[in-house]
Design a protein that fits this description.
single chain; 300 residues; alpha+beta; Alpha-Beta Plaits; 3-stranded parallel sheet; two-stranded antiparallel sheet; elongated
Length: 300
């Protein structure tokens, strides 16, 4: 296949009524995607349908209403298995020889569970009679509890030491997002929000930047498959340690942070050479049994 061959069909067909068109070039000036182009030899307006996103701007701005945009005739909706989007992705990968990468969410129509979150207080022991004016307790504690709790009834206090407990003022935590995959400003925003709300954020597997250490009381340090930035200081600074067992967002061969994103600051925090690719295996290569996991916990 020639390197210049484009395997991807256009999504839309731009049809110009030559009898109505006056050549005013208003479509050229109004299109931000370069669909319409003014040629001098011969003098006419050429169309690049591959650049069209069906914004309809040229149709609206055409004074003679000489433009029409419709779906490309050879592109259908596909089937339930081979959707138009799936076939388009395959064609793009065949064209480029690479893997399509995207960030900040998923293009698939997955439901946003936050929009469907319901706090059902029907089983609260003493529900508020006036919930608009009476406070509701939302605190929750994370940590192991003894089977029997010894209490001094006269002084109404616990008389035995308790295991470490983490207090969440709201029963919601921020999930892991590593430094490098997101910026330090984004991580600082999560840290500030966690401290303000009385909950915790997770630094992910990119290590903990020194600027986040003032918020360490609200931080989870993650030990993931890549082990980036994991040392004694990192483990002792955070309020808690999370061992990521599942693949999370790293199916197949795992996660890949390109070398061009490994700046000097990311390199220092992740403890890897500057400019080198950061590969996070999908599984832990030292955990293949319950005993292996026990050994990792013991080592930590």
């Amino acid at each position: 296949m020639d390197a210049t061959t484009n395997c991807v069909l256009p999504r839309y067909q731009v049809v110009r009524d030559e009898a109505a068109c006056t050549g005013c070039a208003q479509c050229v000036r109004s299109c931000a995607n370069g669909v319409h182009r003014l040629r001098k030899d011969p003098e006419r307006i050429a169309i690049n349908p591959r650049a069209c996103v069906n914004c309809q701007r040229c149709v609206v701005f055409c004074p003679e209403l000489a433009l029409t945009i419709r779906p490309w005739p050879q592109v259908g909706t596909g089937s339930s298995t081979w959707t138009a989007e799936a076939m388009d992705d395959i064609a793009k990968q065949a064209q480029t020889g690479g893997v399509l990468l995207s960030s900040m969410g998923t293009p698939a129509p997955y439901p946003i569970y936050w929009d469907h979150l319901l706090l059902n207080a029907s089983q609260v022991t003493n529900p508020s009679i006036d919930p608009l004016r009476e406070p509701m307790e939302t605190r929750v504690f994370l940590g192991s509890r003894p089977e029997i709790l010894k209490i001094n009834e006269r002084e109404r206090r616990v008389v035995e030491p308790l295991p470490p407990q983490l207090k969440l003022d709201v029963p919601i935590m921020f999930s892991a997002m590593s430094f490098g995959s997101i910026s330090l400003n984004a991580q600082k925003a999560l840290a500030l929000a966690a401290a303000e709300l009385g909950t915790f954020f997770n630094v992910g597997e990119g290590g903990m930047h020194r600027d986040l250490e003032p918020f360490a009381d609200h931080a989870f340090a993650q030990v993931a498959s890549g082990r980036f930035g994991v040392d004694a200081h990192y483990l002792n600074t955070a309020a808690a340690i999370e061992i990521k067992i599942g693949q999370g967002a790293k199916p197949g061969i795992g996660g890949h942070l390109p070398g061009e994103k490994i700046s000097a600051e990311v390199s220092r925090t992740r403890m890897i050479p500057e400019g080198s690719d950061a590969i996070s295996p999908a599984p832990h290569h030292d955990i293949y049994s319950i005993e292996d996991l026990r050994q990792l916990i013991f080592s930590i």
